[in-house]
Specification:
Blueprint (H helix, E strand, L loop, with lengths): L19 H4 L8 H14 L2 H6 L12 H13 L2 E11 L7 E11 L2 E2 L2 E9 L4 E9 L19
Antiparallel strand pairs: 1-2, 2-3, 2-4, 4-5
């Protein structure tokens, strides 16, 4: 039997022990970082239904028709590869319930580097953590190497 594949979120765990239970709906990610990792894995696995499920109700894409959003997301996921994720920083929920994660996503489209750094905002919706919004920057727009950033040094 071949070894179980590693999780695309780069946690060091096998997929079946890491993000798969979230993708199958068996559990909710316990915090914002695990949700962010599971969303990256969902892009890599082309699990667009999970990406829709984990959008916060206040995310602007929730105003779009679900089928249209899923079609666009599926086309994006199928046209890209997601080989590496690096989480640089995280902030637990503040008094308003907002949690943040800063990450560097390695992404390629037909051999072209489409990688980015994002500061993502997450909020719990009563069921689980959900992706609320994000601010992304291309590596060339950054004053320092992406992996050296923190939430405090991420440019607005």
């Amino acid at each position: 039997m071949p070894p179980a594949p590693p999780c695309p979120c780069c946690s060091g765990l096998r997929y079946r022990e890491c993000c798969a239970p979230f993708h199958r709906g068996e559990a909710e990610p316990p915090d914002a970082e695990r949700l962010m990792r599971s969303r990256y894995s969902a892009f890599a696995q082309r699990d667009v239904a999970y990406l829709w499920k984990t959008l916060h109700p206040d995310h602007p894409d929730r105003a779009r028709p679900r089928d249209e959003y899923l079609r666009d997301l599926r086309a994006y996921a199928q046209g890209h590869q997601f080989p590496k994720l690096v989480v640089m920083d995280r902030r637990p929920p503040d008094a308003s319930g907002l949690a943040q994660v800063l990450f560097f996503a390695k992404v390629f489209e037909k051999g072209k580097d489409r990688s980015f750094v994002e500061r993502s905002d997450f909020r719990h919706d009563g069921t689980g953590w959900r992706y609320l919004s994000g601010v992304a920057r291309l590596p060339k727009e950054l004053p320092v190497p992406p992996e050296s950033l923190t939430l405090a040094t991420f440019p607005e």
